[in-house]
Amino acid sequence: MLISRATEESSSEAIVNVPSKTLVRLAFFGVIALSAVSLGTSYAASGLGGTTEELAADRYESGSEGPVAPPANGVTVISTDSNAWLGEQSDDPRSKAEMMAFASNGSVLYYNDSHTRYWDVDPVPGTRRTIEYAYADHLNGSACPEFLSASYYENSAYANSVNRSVWEAYAEAQEPVGACTRNGIVRANMTTGESTTIYSAITPGKHSTRWHDADRINDTHVAVADIFLDRAFVVDTRSGNITWQWRATEAFSPNRSGGPYPGDWTHANDIEVLPDGRLALDLRNNDRVVFLDPAESPEEAFQANWTLGAENVHSILYEQHNPDYIPLSEGGPALVIGDSENNRAIEYQRVNGSWERTWSWQDARMQWTRDADRLANGHTLLTDSNGDRVLEVDERGEVVWSVEVGFPYEAERLGTGDESESGPSARSAAIASNQPDTLETAWLRVKGVLAGPEFQALYYVSPRWMRSTDIAAALVTGIGALGWILTEGWWALSMRARLSQVFAR
Ligand SMILES: [Ca+2]
Ligand SMILES: [Ca+2]
Ligand SMILES: [Ca+2]
Ligand SMILES: [Ca+2]
């Protein structure tokens, strides 16, 4: 009797449960199907049959005049980064990096993929088609010197420009990777295809030891942003001797600011020589741009009252790249910056001894902005690194030119000066910030909540065709699938518990 009563109970429960279970299953199926369809549509629309970089390589090789980019108001030079990681070159479309230039008509003027990664690129004044750029080549095993040996330290002008204890602490922080990076500065004539190395040195490790930028001071001297040793230095390129340097320890406390010391403390990734001879240095991990006077000793060089940004005050700057200086003659002083983790380009104007925000630009797609150049006509050229495009916006904030490029780092429009030096400040030319529509604003709020290096890492490892909405769809698909599996598991377990109760009785 007992058994039949229990059976009756569970079967009456089952009658109630079946439709509600079906509804839950349908709901899971609906969510997963919708997000999967959205992903599939996005993948199909990405048309990855031929990327701009692949087309550029083919057409440069074959000498074809066919355009790969829309027509533009001048030559556009684009450097790209790659996600080649610790020497592992994957089959991913982003595993290769390129230096490319497109003519005004969109045809390929220059293409080079001989280096592992490409960084900051500058036009060479007085030339039409010559550039200077920074690159990184990843090396392994015997290609890497014994960084900690006495003979290496003594014979390397790059190493012995700091105390041996400093050198050892930094080198040891990159061990035991067993890998290293050749950092170089190259001058390339894009008409003849000839290139010359101006200066190079090998640093231990492959991630946070590179130089992403160098800027020319004169015919013989170059300023370098040295991510490895957390410093700015000036090198005589004839001898390789370092003639001046400023280490970030002059102004900031390791372990109380920035990233891990000395592994990746400041991530000093950009340097700009200003018209008055000063240097603007970008300390990414400290959320700051600092100003230095290389006419002064390292102890006196730091101009604290010019600093833009503050530690972890992410409303001003959030792990930014590529600050450009707009001089007084163009309506500055102002800085135009890729405010990377905030997924926007931003401008600050110097007013009465402090910095005032005067312009910004972002759209729903923009993800990890690493360059913004104010052009002479008041337009702004932007690199959207994880949005995989380079775009030009006009003074009203409208996109007037855009090209799909995988993981761009820097862009330059030739004939408009280096970076933003010939462009007007937003304030002086009444350049408008863009106004995203309601839907865009809502999505930007969601992205704003998720902003930060951890979320950015998702873009770093995801396939190139995925935009922020696709990553969200993929997350929804994954969470939906996991939720369904867990729910089914829970139902199965409670059914088993019920059955074992029945049999125990
Ligand atoms: Ca530069
Ligand atoms: Ca720069
Ligand atoms: Ca720039
Ligand atoms: Ca630029």
Word description of this protein:
The chain is α+β, with helices and mostly antiparallel strands and 505 residues long. It folds into two domains: 2-45 and 467-504; 70-456, Neuraminidase, CATH 2.120.10.30. The protein is 27% helix and 29% strand. It has eight helices and 23 strands. The strands form six sheets. The chain has a four-stranded antiparallel beta sheet, with helices on one face. A hairpin with a 5-residue loop joins strand 2 and strand 3. Helix 1 runs antiparallel to helix 8 (468-504). It is globular and about 90 Å long. Mean pLDDT is 91; it is low at 1-12. Bound molecules: calcium ion (4 copies). Residues 322, 324, 371-373, 419-420 line the site of one calcium ion (CA).
Short summary:
The protein has 505 residues and is an alpha+beta fold. 27% of the residues lie in helices and 29% in strands.
Question: Please, what is the oligomeric state?
Answer: single chain
Give the names of the bound compounds. calcium ion
Low-confidence stretches: 1-12
Amino- and carboxy-terminal Cα gap: 11 Å
CATH architecture identity of the largest domain? 6 Propeller
Describe the main β-sheet briefly: 4 strands, antiparallel
Number of helices: 8
Q: Which shape, going by the Cα principal axes?
A: globular
Computed structural class = alpha+beta
Averaged pLDDT: 91
Q: CATH class of the largest domain, anyone?
A: Mainly Beta
Radius of gyration: 27 Å
User: Number of domains in the coordinates?
Assistant: 2
CATH third-level topology of the largest domain: Neuraminidase
Number of strands: 23
